[in-house]
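@channel sequence for tomorrow's demo:
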Amino acid sequence: IAADNLVQQGIHARVLSMHTIKPLDNSTVLSAAKETPIIVTVEEHTIVGGLGGVVAEILSELASPKATLVRIGLKDGFSCEVGDQAYLREFYGLSSEAIAKRAKEALFQHSGR
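structure tokens (generated this afternoon):
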């Protein structure tokens, strides 16, 4: 849904569903890193030890990674917030609108280098 939001703003977004982090499809991540300016990982849990970390490891092995990595998820620590999934996604910046906003910001920061 965040990708649809970006498309409506004239920004093409490719979505890769990574249902497991072990084993991870390294070749797909490497291909995306060579073909896209940014890679955004989204996790409904802490970013520590998750998909973003594994993608960062793969990107660190590239001689000169083209893509900038943006990890979206909960910061390390405990949550004291209670609510349904929609509320918590909004609260922690995991709504489709928030994800699209972070991706767009990262894209413009990357292009402004």
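heads up for whoever presents: Residues 96-111 form the longest helix (16 residues).
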